[in-house]
Amino acid sequence: MTIWSALTTTEVLAQFNDSETTAYDTSKGDSTQASLTDIITKVSDQIVQAYADAGRLIDPVTGLAPANGTIPPGEKNRAIALVRWKYLLAIPTGKSLAENRAEEAKKAEEYLLLVAQRKFKFSGVATKPGRRLHPFSFDAIGQT
Predict the structure, then answer these.
(1) Residue 125 lies in a domain
(2) Residue 93 covered by a domain
(3) What single DSSP character describes residue 70?
(4) Strand locations in the chain, DSSP E?
(5) Does pTM top 0.85 for this prediction?
(6) Mean pLDDT for each consecutive 10-residue tract of the chain (144 residues)?
(7) 80 lies in a domain?
(8) In the prediction, which pLDDT does 122 show?
């Protein structure tokens, strides 16, 4: 398994289409416009909070709480969908483009809500030495 990592502007921009990239390039020089980095931070915090609410704020590789500003590797595409949508909504030239990305963002939001409410079943859960995996326990660690 891979450890949690930060979502970068490069990863987000790689998923922009030509029209979205043009909108980004047009607005990035304007200090009054939304910052892509700030939106990435807010979305990353939202994902971490969903995992924390679900009692799953553990990096499966290290067994420790992940570093600040990092998200699970499996959440990168959902995070990008949310960042892209929120960013496009925040800039004047991107609002019409955001409509095309609304469905992806809605699905990502709904998924994170299910994670936070513990309604999503995780296939892989980190266990501590000497413990058995019990997926229905509160902390998903199981009994000793």
Answers:
(1) no
(2) yes
(3) E
(4) 5-6, 70-71
(5) no
(6) 83 93 84 85 91 77 78 90 92 82 87 81 48 43 36
(7) yes
(8) 54
- Identify whether 98 is part of a domain: yes
Amino acid at 33: Q
Q: Which domain holds residue 105?
A: 5-116
Task: Calculate the CA 143 to chain-centre distance.
Answer: 30
Output helix, strand, coil percentages for the chain, rounded to the nearest 5.
55, 5, 45
d(CA 3, CA 89): 31
Dihedral-angle region of residue 92 (phi above 0 means left; psi in -120 to 50 means alpha; beta otherwise): alpha
> How many Å apart are CA 63 and CA 109, to the nearest integer?
26
- Tally the domains of the chain: 1
> Residues with Cβ < 8 Å from 40, sequence gap 6 or more?
7, 8, 9, 12, 79, 83
Where b means 16+ CB within 10 Å and e means fewer, 38-70 reads ebbbebbebbbebbeebebbbbbeeeeebeeeb
